[in-house]
Specification:
With 679 residues, the protein is mostly beta strands. 2% of the residues lie in helices and 53% in strands.
């Protein structure tokens, strides 16, 4: 009977009732589980399976409910539960029950989209719990491509094409990694325009045409074209960087027509202004070879015409029509320079049967018709006045550019005799050459990264001369900058570096080259993205033994920053400064003498005197120092124990000290006083 009772008790204890009313429901990324449990249950064990093929996971629960959090989205989760009593007996499993997590993140919406210049500004809304956004862009009718993945709800997109529609869409991701659908598209049309130059005028000056106009807002330069007819054809003539221009490559007689357009720094071109015309008002009217009528001139007629030619001409050829006739010996035609120098063959009179050409040196000519009092049949016509130019100039010598950073690069060359203008040419393949004309010997060309060739020609009225040899340039991505001294400290210098990227890398690490040994440097921040301002701090100047001027360069990576060059000037002399003793007065017979020394000393000497000038104590030491202690960079202490050279304690009174420093930068000393009291 006892054995049967024990067996029954053991059988009854092992029978744990399975949980009932087992339910599962999804809320967001959580699954809420509940069940009913019998008394005597110590804990429950849950088993979870994600999807149809996931590996089961076991979860312990100590109440009859459980929240399973941070679950995978768009997934059905299956659960089983069983109970355990305090004797570690388990019930059978209840379940399965299922819950599907299906969280949808709403799409963001654009709240702002506009273009200013070639930058598109975008802003959009954010749903609660979202932390990352993917922005995509489509150009025209193309396909969407990802522009950026962002942690903020705005973006400024630098675009490159004018008169182009850019379409954008954005989606957002919550903290659980769920992406929303893409937003509705926002289309922005970039339409950057530059106003045409207004009030264009052309005025003739002596040997030149002066152009002027009202500047256009946003223009970086102006393209000038010239033609010999109002209807063209117009050809590119030169580039101006202000609202005026002087054309010196002109000759009297023909009428010149000009038109000008503005070009922005983005390369956007305005419409042309003009054309406007310019004719030398003092030029001799040409009469197509027909003689002038002698009537109604009165007796004793005298008149002078003046013709101004190109300033680059060396002489003028004046050709008279073959029918030019005057009364021989009485009527004369004078051809002279402005200073009155007669041209060979002038004056002349009589009847011609062929054209007559006279040459006058210089860039201007006077033609005077002079008759006597017996007017008979005469007349003349100027058939042609042509400038005589020197031969085309010899090739200029290209000078080495000042930098190798892509962007506006200043190219320069030597001036050559007889050249009145120059033509700069550049190419990336030595086959197709770009060209620009200018009056000076330097020109800024905006070139991208890569290998380039450039050459230059001199020109005058005779045309362009031969080109110089092609000079190679290899341009790299980089930065330009300015370097300004921001603050001066006792043991350091601080410079502000303003940087502007020229198609540079997205982020750079700044370094310095050219500093003397012993000078340390740091940047704040050490890495820079895009353009901006950072601070360069130089320290350790007291460690520079040899004074002088040390040029240094700021580098972005390995490329020198154009314009960010400075000079660190280390003053001469040892410059022992701020020498003093402490404590002063001293009550315990000990005193420390301290001084700042601007350069690294090789030897230090200390002398102490009483008020009569008698020497009391002397200490000299060569580097490396042990008695003289460098407590901070360039600051030295000497602890004097108040004893004389014989080792005896000195009396309590006032003393003088003299400290001298010697080194590669020279010798310097300083004096001071202190009081020692004896108790």
């Amino acid at each position: 009977m006892i054995l049967l009772a024990l067996a029954f008790f053991a059988s009854a204890a092992s029978a744990v009732t399975p949980p009932s009313n087992f339910t599962a429901s999804a809320s967001g990324y959580n699954v809420n589980l509940q069940w009913s449990g019998a008394s005597g249950v110590y804990m429950w064990e849950l088993k979870r399976q994600a999807g149809a093929s996931g590996s089961p996971t076991t979860i312990a629960a100590y109440s009859n409910s459980y929240t399973d959090g941070d679950m995978a989205n768009l997934t059905t989760h299956s659960y089983w539960v069983r109970a355990r009593d305090i004797s570690n007996n388990w019930s059978s499993w209840s379940g399965p029950v299922q819950a599907t997590v299906a969280v949808a993140v709403s799409a963001p919406q654009f709240t702002h989209s506009s273009a200013a210049g070639f930058t598109v500004s975008l802003r959009w809304t954010a749903a609660s719990g979202c932390w990352r956004w993917e922005l995509q862009r489509r150009i025209g009718a193309g396909s969407f491509e990802t522009v950026a993945t962002l942690s903020e709800t705005s973006y400024a997109d630098p675009v490159g094409s004018n008169h182009t529609t850019y379409s954008y869409r954005v989606r957002q991701q919550d903290l659980h990694g769920t992406w929303s659908p893409y937003s509705a598209e926002a289309g922005v049309t970039v339409a950057v325009s530059v106003a045409a130059p207004a009030n264009l005028t052309a005025a003739w000056g002596q040997g030149r045409v002066n152009l002027a106009w009202t500047s256009s807002s946003g223009a970086s330069h102006y393209d000038i074209q010239r033609a010999n007819s109002a209807s063209g054809p117009f050809s590119s003539w030169d580039t101006a960087y202000s609202a005026s221009y002087q054309d010196t490559n002109v000759a009297s007689g023909p009428t010149y027509y000009y038109r000008v357009r503005a070009v922005s720094s983005y390369g956007v071109q305005s419409a042309y202004s003009g054309p406007v015309s310019a004719l030398d008002p003092n030029s001799v009217p040409l009469s197509n070879g027909l003689p002038e009528s002698p009537h109604p001139y009165t007796n004793g007629y005298s008149n002078t015409w003046t013709y101004y030619g190109s300033t680059s001409a060396i002489a003028l050829d004046v050709t008279f029509d073959a029918r030019t006739a005057t009364e021989a010996g009485y009527d004369f035609i004078h051809v002279t320079a402005l200073d009155g120098t007669e041209a060979p063959g002038s004056p002349f009179s009589g009847t011609q049967s062929v054209q007559k050409t006279l040459r006058v040196n210089g860039t201007a000519v006077k033609i005077r018709l002079q008759t006597d009092y017996s007017v008979t049949g005469w007349g003349f016509a100027v058939a042609r006045i042509a400038p005589v130019f020197p031969p085309p100039p010899s090739p200029p010598t290209p000078l080495k550019p000042s930098g190798t950073v892509a962007g506006p690069l200043l190219l320069s060359w030597s001036a050559v005799p007889q050249a009145t203008y120059y033509q700069l040419e550049w190419s990336s393949n030595s086959v197709t050459w770009n060209a620009a004309r200018m009056a000076g010997t330097a020109y800024a060309v905006d070139l991208p990264n890569g290998s380039w060739l450039w050459r230059v020609r001199g020109g005058n009225g005779s045309g362009l001369g031969l080109p110089s040899g092609a000079s190679p340039i290899t341009l790299v991505a980089g930065y330009s900058g300015t370097l300004a001294l921001a603050a001066v400290e006792r043991d350091g210098l601080r410079y502000s570096v303003n940087l502007q990227a020229y198609r540079g890398p997205p982020a750079i690490v700044l370094t310095v080259a050219g500093l003397p040994p012993g000078v340390r440097w740091s940047f704040s921040p050490s890495a820079l993205s895009g353009s901006g301002t950072t601070t360069l701090e130089l320290t350790g100047l007291r460690a520079v033994a040899v004074p002088g001027a040390y040029p240094f360069t700021v580098l972005a990576g390995t490329v020198p920053v154009e314009g960010a060059r400075g000079t660190l000037t280390v003053a001469g002399g040892m410059a022992v400064e701020d020498a003093h003793a402490f404590p002063n007065p001293s009550y315990d017979g000990r005193v420390t003498i301290r001084a700042s020394i601007a350069k690294a000393p090789t030897a230090l000497k200390l002398r102490v005197y009483d008020l009569t000038g008698a020497p009391v104590f002397e200490q000299r030491e060569d580097a490396p120092f042990s008695r003289f202690v460098e407590v901070s960079p360039g600051v030295f202490d000497y602890a004097w124990t108040g004893t004389n050279d014989s080792g005896r304690a000195v009396a309590g009174e006032k003393y003088l000290f003299w400290l001298q420093a010697q080194g590669g930068a020279g010798t310097s000393s300083a004096r001071g006083a202190f009081t020692m009291l004896r108790r």
